[in-house]
Amino acid sequence: MSAAAGPAQLTVENVGVTFGGVRAVEEVSFTAEPGAIVGLIGANGSGKTTTLDMVSGLVTPQRGTVRLDGADLAEYLPEERQRVGMVRSFQDCRLYPELSVFDVLMLCEDVKHEVAVVPTTLQLPWARRAEKRKQVAVDQVIGAFGLERFRHHRTAELSTGTRRVVDLASIILAEPRLLLLDEPTAGIAQREAEAFIPLLRRIHEVADTTIVLVEHDVPLVFALCSTVVVMERGRVVAAGPPEVVRADPKALTAYLGASDEALYASGPSGAGSAGGSGNEHSESNERG
Ligand SMILES: Nc1ncnc2c1ncn2[C@@H]1O[C@H](COP(=O)(O)OP(=O)(O)O)[C@@H](O)[C@H]1O
Ligand SMILES: [Mg+2]
After folding, report:
1. pTM score of the predicted model
2. Whose CA is nearest to atom 16 of ligand 1?
3. Given this model, what pLDDT does residue 95 score?
4. Of 173, 191, 209, which closes a domain?
5. Which residue, 140, 173, 206, sits at the end of a domain?
6. ∠ CA 225-266-264 to the nearest 5 degrees?
7. 113 pLDDT exceeds 80?
8. Could you tell me where the beta strands, DSSP code E, fall in the chain?
9. With a 6 A CB cut-off, is 46 part of the ligand 1 pocket?
10. Residue 225: which residues within 8 A CB-CB, separation 6 or more?
């Protein structure tokens, strides 16, 4: 598969996997059209993370297929999936607690361009130009994500929420065509979680990418996603646009278990779904 540009189409067809005796994913199918934001919701243990793992190649499905722009990915290792534009949310900056935000983001650019150490050290003209381009790209994301005042902070000093913003900024630098996010708001304060809706919208716009988002914050998913997929015990029980899924009784019971207060906040009228009021739910729903 050549590295095409623009958002990718993801097709998941009847995938399933059993760990030991546990049927983690029974049978799951959904499509993320190019440029869509697809939200995966469902109770704890319903198979959301395992589904993402089968898309990213971390787990090999025992049945079914995963396609990117129609091409079967069965033979693609996780790193090969990255090379065709599939990016899973980075949690990398916590691996470098001593580095500043700027340095962590520069490192992401280094990995992408695989700039050789020697020419950079020798300061050959093209290497200087490449270095300058990297800095411009990093400065742009620092500006776009409001990270200016944290530029020289070590990532270890950041709040979990701000660190997650740095993770998201590093995603932009990776230029994804398909972005897989597993619970980006897990473990962060509600005030910071609310800031994620505009942030993810901006990522979607700036990166021009398809997004599959696993998230326990149901109002966030309804506010953000063009398609919502509801999972229950390893199966899809409802899927469609938010307004359709919100009215589907099968979906209700499935995610009531996950997040009843969140559901209440999302409201049948959708009044609370834009992330404005009535969002005091998440602290109580938080899980690791
Ligand atoms: N590596 C594993 N070994 C055994 N069971 C697993 C493994 N990974 C997940 N499971 C089980 O598969 C089911 C689905 O898990 P998961 O995909 O993590 O659900 P979710 O992300 O929706 O909470 C759960 O019952 C979980 O305990
Ligand atoms: Mg999970």
Report:
1. 0.79
2. 47
3. 63
4. 173
5. 173
6. 145
7. no
8. 10-19, 22-32, 37-42, 63-68, 71-72, 86-88, 178-182, 210-214, 227-232, 235-240
9. yes
10. 37, 38, 39, 213, 242
d(CA 241, CA 209): 19
Residues near ligand 2 ion, CB 5 Å cutoff: 49
Chain segment 241-272, per-residue pLDDT in tens: 999 999 888 888 777 655 444 445 544 443 33
Residues 81 and 187 in one domain: yes
Residue 181 sits in the same domain as residue 260 = yes
Closest C-alpha residue for ligand 1 atom 24: 45
67: its two tokens = 């396609």
Q: What is the mean pLDDT of the chain?
A: 82
Query: Which ligand 1 atom is the nearest neighbour of the CA of 50?
Result: 17
| For ligand 1, atom 18: residue with the closest CA | 49
Gyration radius from the chain CA atoms: 20
Residue with tokens 């290792």: 77
Q: Evaluate: CB of 47 within 6 angstroms of ligand 1.
A: yes
Residue whose CA lies nearest to ligand 1 atom number 10: 24
Identify whether 6 is part of a domain. Answer: yes
Q: Determine the pLDDT at residue 276.
A: 37
Same domain, 86 and 132: no
Confidence of residue 75 (pLDDT cuts 50, 70, 90): very high
Average pLDDT over residues 153-159: 92
Model pLDDT, residue 241: 96
Alpha carbon distance, N-terminus to C-terminus of the chain? 36
Atom of ligand 1 nearest to the CA of 46: 22
Ligand nearest to the CA of 181: 2
Domain assignment of residue 105, given as a range: 91-173
Q: How far is the CA of 45 from the centre of ligand 1 (A)?
A: 5
d(CA 78, CA 64): 17
Given a contact cutoff of 8 angstroms between Cβ atoms, the answer to whether 210 and 9 are in contact is: yes
